[in-house]
Design a protein that fits this description.
- With about 850 residues, this protein is mainly beta.
- Helices cover about 15% and strands about 45% of the residues.
- The strands form seven sheets. The chain has a 22-stranded antiparallel β-barrel. Strands 1-6-7-4-5 form a five-stranded mixed β-sheet.
- Helix 2 (about 35-50) runs antiparallel to helix 3 and helix 3 (about 55-70) runs antiparallel to helix 4 (about 75-85).
- The longest helix has 25 residues, at about 105-130.
- The relative contact order is 0.12.
Length: about 850
């Protein structure tokens, strides 16, 4: 963003970038931090120091550079304040008005400053006119900023004397034209997910990674899952063109279910299946400010399903930035379109957006023209398609209170890998939500309603077999309330307390379940961050949830100790537990599965296990985690993090061994009239008896050797072992790569060229899956299959050119540039190379 016109003062090639990216392989490796934020911070700090010494012109110049790199309202405020101190009231007035346009919390105070500056300018002009014998009187609003103040180094001789970085302005007469400077590091990275409050990553009780707005833009990716691949500890597997699954620190799966995904604190977890449908979200990457990833259990604050971690997609505040339009097309029929209109009018702001995405499949399961098969969708070449619309509006009610209302709707198709007998599965339908929140200094209340209405079934099947078509419909209503306060209990002991709770209603209608099901969840949490001076703090968190299916209260504690050897580094030790409750599909399944060889017979897949009395209940999945990490941001040239962790995982839910029908279990003497078939076996879900133990580590660094050039690299280690109780025959699943590496380079140039080159490596995986038998067998019994997935390497690249004062951009993106064809899951489609070209414009 360029400075307002009235306040304005008067490369690297791809080959060099590629060479530098390879050189960074020698670095130790993690979270994506500052990039352009680091550069803006340097100029901001230099400018504030110069202004504190009375060197106003040079200091203002540095602040302007910071604002151009990364606009922030507080920088514009400090520019206005410095102009006022130096005596340049006309430019001070312009800067304060620009600051006021961002609708800051202190708008009333700044408006008073503007009135006083205008009054002083009027007196000065009247006095000058009187001295020249001209007319006197008030002036109208100031015109364009032709005046730029003194041309030489100005000292503390203006109308208002100098102040220190945080001290109040010295007053002359009774009209104040400046107040205390905004001396906090406005470009310091903050995270909100780990503690539900804005804080430095140095203070976070969990390992936290950040994908910045710059990372999103320079990567060229339009799929959020592919953005997450660049982070240490995050597992990303492509199943089909419309199904890319994400987990954290292992335990990825078809319909991955151990990571809680939020959009601005709103869970987008699909409760009936226990997964996230990334391709159906109504969020464009254009609207994302940053993505925060908490690596490690998060149930202490977020309850069930934050088993492996939390991913929080944080969108830009309505009214921030510019409106935009972006369109892209690519190989295999890839397509992307997005338009966003955002405006601010005083305390009111809004953002309205619409978009379309088409993700093609990597391969077809059926050749064209097959007459012996039928399909769910006529177009097998489409992996996912998403038409979406969203509207968000905010209004500042007072200095500390912000009201937000909004909603989104998406019409989507998705081809995916389901579980068990359902390999390729397809869904098509509507997903939408309405949400509202009131957030203030000490309290917040958030509520939302989500509606899910899809048609679904097997993606394809031979004509003798049913597609098992069905229509799942779900409604979720969630109300969250939170209170926070800070107080002291000693000279250097500060408490930051958060207390909250939520009520969650879930109603699901689905023919795959035994009946219409309703669950009402209630949960509460508390957290106290106790700071002992500047160097040491303890964080105690705890939550209790009532889980209706289990009919029990489930506690989730977490404790962290953080020591700061320096102001910009932290050593953290944390321990926590988390859980995943059975999804609706796992808890209430009642589905007959037809035998491939004998249409009149089949197995009864059900959760309650009628053959065993009908009282069976799954246990919740459990994890215990211990995490030790060190994060350093001491240098403006490099940030790095080292983390080691231990996980113990119990009671994983998986498909059960098929139980044969016998005389004693045949309750209906053969034919089940309700299901319309002869039962030959019983199936469903069970808890594994294996106990999984994981020792892992993550190391990462981001390097900023010069302005406009960044390198990042990270390495993840995941070593898994199992404890096998006596009599346990479960097959161990090693679906997580033991070694993963990410290396990347980003460049930005003043002529307008920018881009990114990244390399991702994943070592071999071994997957154990329960699958149906060949069609030639009469039995419907599922069996274990163990299959290796070889190591693979991905190289992705993007290059772009900005023009028309950085408002227009053309870019090209390559995924899997080297075309290393591979699978990322035994049943997954073969991944190849894709190209896309984009054109975007901001207005």
């Amino acid at each position: 963003m360029r400075l307002p016109p009235a306040l304005r003062s008067g490369r690297l090639g791809l080959r060099a970038v590629a060479s530098s990216a390879l050189a960074v392989l020698v670095l130790a490796t993690s979270p994506a931090h500052a990039d352009d934020r680091t550069e803006a911070r340097k100029h901001f700090k230099a400018g504030m120091e110069l202004i504190a010494r009375g060197s106003y012109d040079r200091g203002i110049s540095e602040l302007k550079k910071a604002y151009e790199i990364k606009p922030h309202p507080n920088v514009m405020f400090n520019i206005g304040r410095a102009y006022a101190e130096s005596g340049d009231l006309e430019n001070a007035l312009l800067a304060y008005k620009e600051y006021l346009a961002s609708s800051p919390p202190d708008a009333d105070d700044v408006q008073k400053i503007i009135v006083r500056i205008q009054a002083r300018l009027d007196r000065q002009k009247a006095a000058l006119a009187a001295a020249q014998g001209g007319p006197t009187g008030p002036t109208g609003p100031t015109g364009p900023a032709g005046a730029t103040g003194p041309t030489g180094e100005t000292g503390p001789t203006g109308p208002v004397g100098p102040t220190g970085p945080a001290g109040p302005a010295v007053e002359q007469r009774d009209d104040k034209v400046a107040i205390a400077a905004r001396t906090e590091d406005v470009f310091d990275e903050t995270v909100v997910t780990a503690s539900r409050a804005a804080q430095s990553p140095l203070d976070a009780p969990n390992s936290t990674s950040i994908i910045t707005e710059q990372d999103i833009r320079l990567s060229g990716h339009t799929k959020i899952q592919e953005l997450l691949r660049r982070l240490a500890g995050v597992d990303v597997n492509v199943m089909t063109g419309g199904d890319t699954e994400v987990s954290i620190r292992g335990y990825n799966s078809r319909m991955s279910n151990k990571t809680l995904v939020l959009v601005d604190y709103r869970p987008v977890y699909i409760d009936l299946l226990g997964t996230t449908f990334w391709e159906t979200l109504g969020v464009d990457v254009e609207q994302i400010e940053r993505i925060e990833v908490v690596r490690g259990p998060g149930s202490a604050l977020y309850g069930a399903n934050a088993f492996a971690g939390v991913i929080n997609i944080i969108t830009k505040t309505p009214g921030e930035g510019k409106s935009s339009v972006r369109a892209g097309v690519g190989t295999w029929g890839s397509a992307f379109g997005s338009t966003t209109l955002t405006r601010r009018d005083g305390a009111f702001a809004y953002r309205v957006s619409a978009g379309y995405t088409r993700e093609p499949n990597w391969s077809r399961e059926l050749a064209p023209g097959r007459v012996d098969a039928h399909t769910f969708a006529p177009d097998q070449d489409t992996g996912a398609a998403n038409s979406r619309f969203a509207l968000d509006a905010t209004r500042r009610l007072d200095k500390e209170t912000l009201l937000t209302v909004g909603g989104m709707a998406s019409r989507a198709f998705r081809n995916m890998q389901a579980a068990g007998a359902f390999k390729e599965y397809a869904l098509e339908g509507l997903m939408g939500d309405l949400h509202a929140s009131v957030v203030s200094k000490h309290y917040s209340v958030r509520t939302f309603w989500t509606h899910f209405d899809y048609s679904s079934g097997r993606a394809q099947e031979n004509l003798a077999q049913s597609l098992d078509l069905t229509r799942p419909v779900a409604d979720i209503v969630d109300v969250q309330a939170e209170y926070t306060n800070e107080f002291t209990t000693g000279p250097s002991v500060v408490h930051d307390v958060h207390v909250g709770g939520n009520y969650r209603y879930k109603g699901v209608s689905w023919s795959y379940l035994d009946k219409f099901r309703i669950e009402r969840w209630i949960g509460g949490f508390a957290q106290d961050t106790v700071k002992f001076g500047k160097r040491f703090q303890l964080v105690a968190s705890g939550r209790v949830d009532y889980v209706p299916y289990l009919a029990q209260l489930v506690p989730s504690p977490r404790g962290s100790a953080i020591f700061k050897p320096t102001d910009r580094s932290a050593l953290r030790l944390s321990a926590s537990t988390a859980y995943r409750s059975p999804s609706f599909l796992e808890a209430y399944l009642d589905l007959p599965l037809q035998s491939p060889a004998s249409p009149g017979a089949g197995s009864f897949s059900e959760s309650r296990r009628s053959d065993q009395g009908g009282n069976f209940k799954l246990r919740r999945e459990k994890v215990v985690s211990v995490d030790l990490g060190y994060l350093s941001q001491d240098s403006d040239l490099v940030n790095f993090e080292l983390t080691g962790y231990y996980l113990q995982v119990k009671d994983l839910i998986s498909l059960a061994e098929t139980r044969a029908e016998t005389v004693s279990t045949n309750q209906l003497a053969g034919l089940d009239p309700e299901r319309g078939m002869f039962g030959s076996a019983y199936a469903g879900w069970t808890n594994q008896c294996l106990v999984y133990n994981t020792l892992g580590g993550e190391a990462g660094a981001r390097v900023f050797p010069t302005e406009g050039l960044d390198f990042f690299a990270n390495y993840s280690l995941n070593r898994q072992s199992v404890t096998r109780p006596a009599g346990c025959t479960d097959v161990e699943n090693k679906q997580t790569s033991q070694h993963k590496v990410n290396v990347g380079a980003q460049f930005r140039t003043k002529p307008g060229f920018d881009g990114e080159l990244t390399l991702h490596f994943s070592s071999r995986q071994t997957w154990a899956e329960r699958v149906p038998p060949p069609a030639s067998e009469v039995t419907t019994s599922l069996r274990w299959v163990t299959e290796d997935v070889p190591a693979y390497t991905l190289v992705n690249a993007r290059i772009g050119y900005r023009f028309l004062r950085n408002n227009a951009e053309v870019s090209a993106t390559a995924f899997n540039l080297l075309n290393t064809q591979h699978r990322q899951h035994p049943f997954g489609q073969t991944v190849g190379r894709r190209f896309m070209g984009f054109l975007s414009y901001k207005f």
